[in-house]
Amino acid sequence: MAAMFSQNPLMNGPNYSFNDAPRTAAPEGARQHRFDPYTDNGGSTLAIAGADFTIMAGDTRLTSGYSINSRYHPKLFKIGGTTADQKDATIVLSVVGFAADGEALKERLDAICKMYRYRHGKPMSVKACAQRLSTILYQKRFFPYYVYAILGGLDEEGKGAVYSYDPVGSYEREQCRAGGAAASLIMPFLDNQVNFKNQYEPGSGVGHALQERERKPLTRSEGEVLVKDAFDGAVERHIEVGDGLQMMVITKDGIEEVLLPLKKD
Amino acid sequence: MDHRPQAWGRPRDDVYGAYDHSYLQNSGPKQATQAPIVTGTSVIAMKYKDGVVMAADNLASYGSLARFPDVKRLRVFLDSSVVGFSGDVSDMQFLDRHLTDLSIDEAYEDPSCTAAPNGKGHLNAANLHKYLQKLLYKRRNDFDPLWNQLLIAGFDGHSKPYLASVDLRGTSFTSPSLATGFGSALAQPIMRRYAETEEDAAKLTREQAVEVIKECMKVLYYRDARSLDRYSIAVVTKDGVELKEDEQLEKQSWAFAERIKGYGTQTV
């Protein structure tokens, strides 16, 4: 299960996220068929926090091995609205990894946020929801939810907030994060384009004298273009990513949902 | 003659020593299904304009042995939904009994539900799918899985055609066309030619959908070694379920085979 926590393709061998390596030969008759409770359903997610908005995105393909099970299986969920259609929700959860665990996690967090709303008469803050999600994940430390979750919303000051998680509940607030099958393809692109990593002021000197490019928050339209570009790139290089791009933009006025086409091959 | 039936058929104590009764006790760890034994192959289904068509052959295999050639693998639920089972047949029978109990409970709660298939407040296909997903996911969490992949067809809460799948790990998804097992490789590409999107599926007539499904069953029989030419086909409409359980594959022809070159024994 160690490979499960590794996002590093070199540790698992240069392959896809499902195991297609030949099985080590066992003596005939000694073969024990064990039930494996996990699979990887592929797909990728992405979140960017802006000054007064948060963009959450995920592709809509659901795979198992080389098969595409569904071309429309959303990975983004509105959390903690008062009704089933989540019209008044303020928080978005994205889950990628093992789809059944993702579904179960989403339903638990949603139920908890709803209970909070009924008990306290106000929606849960992203900060509180983020801590609670970490607790939920850690409660299953020894039979984890095999999902990379990202939680997005607006913080108490109205600034964009993105919280990212590993399967056992370690979490951190970040400016941006990519998760899932193509995380290793998208994250470096985001480092460069959102946090301006490895970008320097031209002619500002050499070596340590080089000045980093000044960081400033993205505008909403810049963020949306970045998301589309990131996914178009991932679709090209990863077979488990494609079909559709589901995007949710969280602002003080609510959550806007956009669905864009991606390559279906 | 020993007149105690408990001793019949056992090694004689005077020859072999006292019989070790501990073998009859079931005191070890609980045994869960570790592998499917008697299995059903693919189930295929696709949506059309005003309903869903589903099919599965009538074979239950024991490994490579065609063991039970008359096993019905499509099941009607409350006259309004169909569940198609692939995978372990004993787990299918368990689920079948469970669904019977559930539908009886439903009928007691609301006697009108059997009379009016799409009445409000009655367990529709979307509800049934959610129920089965929770059941299968619970069993995988207990490490005691029900070794099946199910397709559920019917209508959702908005009276739109509904088709979804659940597997032994509780993974569930929906699509305009779905297939389990071998069907996901052989039948799904054919079905997607006609129903790539929901919009495409909403244009298909019942006759077209049935035709595509029958064609897929034929392709599966040609290439799936664990399949049979007798099959069940169900059409779910707003008026209920029309289930035919003893259909025969028609118009089979291997004429296409002579045009295939470049693999197998042929070298040119």
TrEMBL record, chain A:
<keyword id="KW-0647">Proteasome</keyword>
<dbReference type="Pfam" id="PF00227">
    <property type="entry name" value="Proteasome"/>
</dbReference>
<keyword id="KW-0963">Cytoplasm</keyword>
<protein>
    <submittedName>
        <fullName>Proteasome component C5</fullName>
    </submittedName>
</protein>
<keyword id="KW-0539">Nucleus</keyword>
<dbReference type="GO" id="GO:0051603">
    <property type="term" value="P:proteolysis involved in protein catabolic process"/>
</dbReference>
<dbReference type="GO" id="GO:0005839">
    <property type="term" value="C:proteasome core complex"/>
</dbReference>
<dbReference type="InterPro" id="IPR023333">
    <property type="entry name" value="Proteasome_suB-type"/>
</dbReference>
<dbReference type="InterPro" id="IPR029055">
    <property type="entry name" value="Ntn_hydrolases_N"/>
</dbReference>
<dbReference type="GO" id="GO:0005634">
    <property type="term" value="C:nucleus"/>
</dbReference>
<dbReference type="GO" id="GO:0005737">
    <property type="term" value="C:cytoplasm"/>
</dbReference>
<dbReference type="InterPro" id="IPR001353">
    <property type="entry name" value="Proteasome_sua/b"/>
</dbReference>
UniProtKB/TrEMBL annotation, chain B:
<dbReference type="GO" id="GO:0043248">
    <property type="term" value="P:proteasome assembly"/>
</dbReference>
<dbReference type="InterPro" id="IPR023333">
    <property type="entry name" value="Proteasome_suB-type"/>
</dbReference>
<dbReference type="Pfam" id="PF00227">
    <property type="entry name" value="Proteasome"/>
</dbReference>
<dbReference type="InterPro" id="IPR029055">
    <property type="entry name" value="Ntn_hydrolases_N"/>
</dbReference>
<comment type="function">
    <text>Non-catalytic component of the proteasome.</text>
</comment>
<dbReference type="GO" id="GO:0019774">
    <property type="term" value="C:proteasome core complex, beta-subunit complex"/>
</dbReference>
<dbReference type="InterPro" id="IPR016050">
    <property type="entry name" value="Proteasome_bsu_CS"/>
</dbReference>
<dbReference type="InterPro" id="IPR016295">
    <property type="entry name" value="Proteasome_beta4"/>
</dbReference>
<keyword id="KW-0539">Nucleus</keyword>
<comment type="similarity">
    <text>Belongs to the peptidase T1B family.</text>
</comment>
<dbReference type="InterPro" id="IPR001353">
    <property type="entry name" value="Proteasome_sua/b"/>
</dbReference>
<keyword id="KW-0963">Cytoplasm</keyword>
<dbReference type="GO" id="GO:0034515">
    <property type="term" value="C:proteasome storage granule"/>
</dbReference>
<dbReference type="GO" id="GO:0043161">
    <property type="term" value="P:proteasome-mediated ubiquitin-dependent protein catabolic process"/>
</dbReference>
<keyword id="KW-0647">Proteasome</keyword>
<dbReference type="GO" id="GO:0005829">
    <property type="term" value="C:cytosol"/>
</dbReference>
<dbReference type="GO" id="GO:0005634">
    <property type="term" value="C:nucleus"/>
</dbReference>
<dbReference type="GO" id="GO:0010499">
    <property type="term" value="P:proteasomal ubiquitin-independent protein catabolic process"/>
</dbReference>
<protein>
    <recommendedName>
        <fullName>Proteasome subunit beta</fullName>
    </recommendedName>
</protein>
